[in-house]
Amino acid sequence: MKSAIPLLLLSLLVTAAAGAQGRATQAPVSTARADAPIDLTGYWVSVVTQDWRWRMVTPAKGDYASIPITLEAKKAGDNWDPARDEAAGEQCKSYGAPALMAVPTRLRISWQDASTLKVETDAGTQTRLFYFGDKRPQRGAPTWQGDSVAQWERPRAARGAAAKGGSLKVVTSRLRPGYLRKNGVPYGTDAVLTEYWDVSADPNGDQWITLTSTVQDDRYLREPWVTALNFKKERDGAKWDPTPCSAR
């Protein structure tokens, strides 16, 4: 009986050591947040260096320059009536995902959870959710911000070197019909928005987002519409000022 006790203790010690070794070799759980090659979180402000006349003021009715619209899109734009949109409760038609980032605005970017990046705008008080991996938005009626599926893209590394940096790719579909420009240039339910979010820094430490967007809509666009927008990082949210959508 006495000799069995040391054997039992030895067995328990071996089992505990094996368990500890197994726990030590387990790989950490990979998440979109943990794997992010760039940091997009924080407050950012639009820096309007191009398309000023269409972004800083509401364009005149019929001003469709720079957008490769179809004849059907022109007919729809010619019937633009902001008062009618307001009466119908559709004053957010130019704040849908295909147009939202071009609106002069501030962004507040944060992680809603480990697999969902949240982008809020103070202009129009809109919220976009970017879903990574197997996580997907709940299916329902099309919305202004649509369903956005995201993934990290990294550059190819040279042989023997680790890849550095990367981009965020976001593809958005299932959109509620809206306007590409506030003066009634339309996009439809089949429109698809593809975005690449890149981060860079100036020598003085200023940080920038360059957002390259492509809108595809066979009904209203003769060819994909490509734009590039810039946002500068702010120290904090002191200037964050949520305002409602405006049809005018």
How many domain regions? Answer: 1
The assigned structural class equals alpha+beta
As a percent range, the share of helical residues equals 10-25%
Low-confidence spans: none
Strand content: 25-35%
Report the order of strands and helices: HHEHHHHEEEEEEEEEE
Mean pLDDT: 90
Q: Strands across the major sheet, in which order?
A: 1-2-3-4-5-6-9-10-11
Rg: 25 Å
Oligomer: single chain
Strand tally is 11
Gross morphology is globular
Structure description:
This protein is of the alpha+beta class and 248 residues long. The protein has one domain (33-234). It is built from 6 helices and 11 strands. The chain has a 9-stranded mixed beta barrel with strand order 1-2-3-4-5-6-9-10-11. Strand 7 and strand 8 (185-187) form a beta hairpin. It is globular and about 55 Å long. The relative contact order is 0.19.
Structure described in brief:
The chain has 248 residues and is of the alpha+beta class. The protein has 6 helices and 11 strands.
Descriptive tags:
single chain, 248 residues, 31% strand, globular
Helix-strand blueprint:
Elements: H1 4-25, H2 32-35, E1 42-46, H3 52-55, H4 71-78, H5 82-87, H6 97-100, E2 106-113, E3 116-121, E4 126-132, E5 147-153, E6 167-173, E7 178-181, E8 185-187, E9 192-201, E10 207-216, E11 225-234
Parallel strand pairs: 4-5
Antiparallel strand pairs: 1-2, 1-11, 2-3, 3-4, 5-6, 6-9, 7-8, 9-10, 10-11
